[in-house]
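Lab notebook: predicted structure, single chain.

Context: the supervisor wants predicted structures on file for every construct in the current expression panel, including those that have not yet been purified. This is the next one on the list. No modifications to the sequence; it matches the entry in the shared construct table.
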Amino acid sequence: MSQLTQQLHHSGIGDILENSIAGKRPGHDECLRLLDSNDVHLMGLVGGHLTRKKFGKKASFVNNMILNYTNVCITDCKFCAFYRPPGHDESYTVSLEQVESRLKAASDMFGITQVMFQGGHNPKLGIEYYEDAFRLIRKKFPKVGVHALSASEIDMISKVEHTSTKEVLVRLKEAGLQSIPGAGAEILVDSVKKIISPKKISSDTWLRIMEEAHSIDIPASATMMYGHVETKKEIAEHFVKIARLQEKTGGFMAFIPWSFEPNNTLMQKEETVKYAAGGTELLKMIAISRIMYDGLIPHIQSSWLTNGISMAQMALQYGADDFGGTLLGEEVVSCTGARSTELTAPKIIDAVKQIGYQVEERDNFYNPVKTH
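Prediction complete. Output recorded below exactly as produced.
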């Protein structure tokens, strides 16, 4: 640490990083200073140090399949290349028989322990569709955890059912919903949402639904999609809003910063965003995520899906402790044509071992399943 201490003394953000090592988390203004700084390597040294202090040289992953159950969506987000409007030739909704056959194949071939069940905002789907799907998964595939439905999908179901989001969550939990992914947060500032996803739920609604889920013991991930129209100040606001909710509920298991992928999206066609943010920005976001949430949100995910495997290896040294999930059947990011979005467990295990780390397979709730 002595060499690191010397570097900290000579850095414009050294005071923030020294406080972080001493267990004091940054607030909004310090977060903004980190975001303004180009000292990414130094942030990474501290992010990596904090992570190794807690987890050692070990990374986890979940053996997961993504089931995008429908691409029908009425929210028309400008950053999405996946959705189709109702009645479109390419629109689809997966039947319960297909849910079962896809899970059986993934279970038999890959031994998955989690299904991430996500799709569009489809006004034709009532709550029974989800209840039937979750009951089927929990009954026929008891080893497979149900990680499903973003806050905005839950809001959509409540509108279809003319009931509260809390009631929807209670019913879905009874049917087998175990944890909630963090999608739909994007940047939790409404002026940003008005530009990129004007029809989607507000920042306060996202936070409220997450708080309701935590209140009935449904844990969740939190996410941030950066690299589009947001400012650094708005990113700092996002970090702080999630920290405040976590201080209140403790319900977030993980935080995942991911880079917006503009290919084939309306935002690229309109030339709002031409290029993805790139690798340096990812490492900076990973390091800041660990520094902002150390001792608050336990796990930081490497975000390999939009940045690739070698960047994920770097991310593990900059503050991430979780590689994320294997990916079978993913259709959202693959619609951008960004890269192949299939990744099996042996590839993750190899990637983690290449950097000299141990690999631990985990379940839905970040409990270890086995060590590789």
